[in-house]
Structure formats: C-alpha cells, structure tokens
C-alpha cells in the first residue's frame, strides 16, 4: 500500500503537508457527506486515516520507508547489517550478541480514525463527527448556506479568468470567545459560465458551538456590457447605419470580447430590423469545449442625412428611379 499516493503527497512531504492533504481528503470522503455511497466513503476514509497515522508518526514512517508495509504491520523489522570484526575468529560472547540481534521486535499500534480526525480538526468538531463515528447521526445542525454575489464582466465569462477572494468568518468557542479568521480562496471562472452558476466552499461560514458552519456559495452575476447583450449562448450587438452604408453592402468592423476585430460584410440592402448571424462567434459552451453560440448583428435604425442639396436630390432620383 502506497501511503504517499493515498494522500497525494511526495515522499519528502512534511508533517504539515501530510496533515493539510489529509484534511482536504477527509472533507471529501467524510461518510456523512456521502450518504449515497457510504460504504465506499468509509473505506476510503479509513485508508486516508491510516496513511496519515503512519506518515505523521516518526517511528512508523521510518519503518515504512525503510522496510515497507508488511514489516510495519507484522512487527518484525529486519536488523541493521552486523559490523564485522577485524579478527578472523569471533569470541563466543560476540557470537551470542549477533544471534540476539537477528530480529528486532516492533509493536504496530494504529490509531483510530476518530482520534486522528479529532487531532487534525480540533475538539470543536468532535460532536459532528465527525465522520469517523461511523453509523451515528451527527448531533449538530448545519447553518443555512450563505450566498454572495460574484460580479463578472462579459469578457471574464467569455475568456475565463482566475479570481482570488477573501473569506472572513467568526469562530466562537464553547466559552463564548470569538476570533476572526481570514482565508484567500481561488475561483477559476470557466469560459461560458452563465449568470446563476454557483461555486460552493464547504463549511467556510461562521462557526459556533453546536452548529456546523454554513457553506459559502458564490453566485455568478454578469455586469452589463457597453456593447453586447448576452442571450443564452448567443451574443447580440445592436448597430445603427447610415443610409449610404445600408444601400452599399457595408463591411462592419466588430470588436470581439477577446480583442479581435471581426470584419462582417452585410449583403443586399439593409433595412431597420435586419439581422445578420455569424456562426460560432457567440459565447463559449462551457460543457462543449471548442463550440460557441452565434453572434447576431441587429440593425436597429438607419441614419438619414439632415439635408441634401438640389444637385444631390437630382442625382439620388436618377439613381433610384
């Protein structure tokens, strides 16, 4: 059994690294968090607890690193190589000492998952169980989730971006003493995410005696854009055109959300209400990488000249008649 692989740490990991990884995995495989597959969760939880026990105990870790799991659990550790005498004939007393060193006894005494969980998470979490009290119902109630808006520009939701946010919470112990904790969390906004997408951080809310901390939920909200309107996976841009452009197959230059300049030729005579669709230039589809919605260019009005000279009017009649 590879304890390092179970906890996703390197062989040079420190105690802090091991406990940090254990804490993350324990939150995922806590049996009370996996009612639908409790048996699998309990099995995985016991494995990560065993790995943490071995890798945070100097003696157990040394034996495991040098001799492996079998030697650790059997209690029989091979002795170090004997130091050979410089003399060709060893005395009977030295021979007997070598025989007594032929094996080294070690008693493997694993700690319970409950004890490990309590040590890592602290006594405030004992009653919730801590998922290690397999089969028992938690006594604490969980606080209702706390939702916080996360404003994102349309550019962020088009290209994707990493946002770092600070979570501040109050922790109150059984004696009524409070302290403030701060944590920086990272949210990776995926291209194509929509308004209403939720990002949840488990039990990061205020903590008090007898209550499981609330989940913190960040709710994606879109900032209004100066040029574009989003409609599902499509992008809509409203354009005004001059009369000349409307009559002469104008090429429009459309700035995209990722900084490109899109050249779009409108065919035929354009009238108010005309819509031109550019495939695959809308918002990315978050669940279908490589695909996008459409870009819809809507002509909402024609700009007419404020005045014409007699000559221009005559020329225009000649062209249009």
Automatic annotation (TrEMBL):
Keyword hit for Chaperone: yes
Residue ranges, compositional bias (Low complexity): 87-103
Keyword vocabulary terms for this entry: Chaperone
GO molecular function, one term: protein-folding chaperone binding
Gene Ontology CC annotation, any one: cytosol
Keyword Chaperone: yes
Region feature (Disordered): 71-110
GO BP terms: protein folding
Annotated ranges, domain J: 2-68
Transmembrane stretches, start-end: none
PANTHER family, A to Z: DNAJ HEAT SHOCK FAMILY PROTEIN (PTHR24078:SF524), DNAJ HOMOLOG SUBFAMILY C MEMBER (PTHR24078)
Protein known as: J domain-containing protein
